[in-house]
From TrEMBL:
InterPro entries: His_Pase_superF_clade-1, His_PPase_superfam, PG/BPGM_mutase_AS, PGM_Phosphatase. This is Histidine phosphatase family protein. It comes from Streptomyces yangpuensis. SMART domains: PGAM. SUPFAM superfamilies: Phosphoglycerate mutase-like. It holds the Pfam family His_Phos_1. It comes from the Bacteria.
Length: 218
């Protein structure tokens, strides 16, 4: 999706999900487990890095988990930028859910899973609340965006759940509606742009560079 117009300026935040892992293929809940990229995931990161480099980012900040760090390294290689790593951008810690397949989670924790899908605050597997993930991740993203030059671009390399909760927080959405943003595919990204009334969602789950669209609401 795109809601920006040509001629608009301001800071941008690109939130980029890591490439494919073996647990992604097996539909296992990774959470904060430190899983590496597959060869396919590394190739995805290299392709996406070449695209994102054309946006001329000014800074890169990434989760310190291997799958995100390796993805960020591909962008660093083509831009020459250093990567700032932080545990604040790690994926949601999900306790007993971690390592389980989707089917195993539904079978063993069906009521908990259903409550989470309804938008209720749930400590999945005894882990973090989504609001707690946003509490640790969003301030780091804002801190790094505040250091950007005028019209600068920050690339945040993180994980699907953390990116969704961060977007929800920065857009000022109620926590129960964050799920409506939908997930990100491996090595896809979302773009937030600075507007007169705060951050706006310009692109979501994109795998190609954004095209300006003229809309009646701009």
């Amino acid at each position: 999706m795109s809601t920006t117009t040509s001629g608009r300026s301001g800071r941008k935040i690109v939130l980029w999900r890591h490439g494919q892992t073996s647990w992604n293929l097996e539909r296992r809940f990774q959470g904060s487990t430190d899983i590496e990229l597959t060869e396919t995931g590394l190739a995805q990161a290299r392709r996406s890095a070449r695209l994102l480099a054309s946006l001329k980012p000014d800074a890169i900040v990434a989760s310190d988990l291997k799958r995100a760090a390796a993805t960020a390294a591909e962008l660093a290689a083509v831009t020459g930028l250093a990567v700032t790593h932080t545990d604040a951008l790690r994926e949601t810690y999900a306790g007993e859910w971690q390592g389980l397949t989707h089917e195993e989670i539904v079978e063993k924790y069906g009521e908990q899973y259903a409550a989470w899908k309804r938008g209720e605050p749930v400590r999945r597997g005894g882990g973090e609340l989504e609001t707690e993930v946003a509490d640790r991740a969003a301030p780091v993203v804002l801190d790094h965006s505040d250091r950007l030059p005028v019209d600068g671009t920050l690339v945040v390399v993180s994980h699907g759940g953390t990116i969704r909760t961060t977007i929800g927080r920065l857009l000022g959405l109620e926590a129960r509606s964050w799920e409506s943003l939908g997930g990100l595919s491996n090595c896809c990204w979302s773009v937030l742009g600075e507007g007169a009334r705060g951050w706006r969602l310009l692109e979501h789950n994109a795998g190609t560079l954004p095209e300006p669209v003229l809309g009646d609401d701009d």
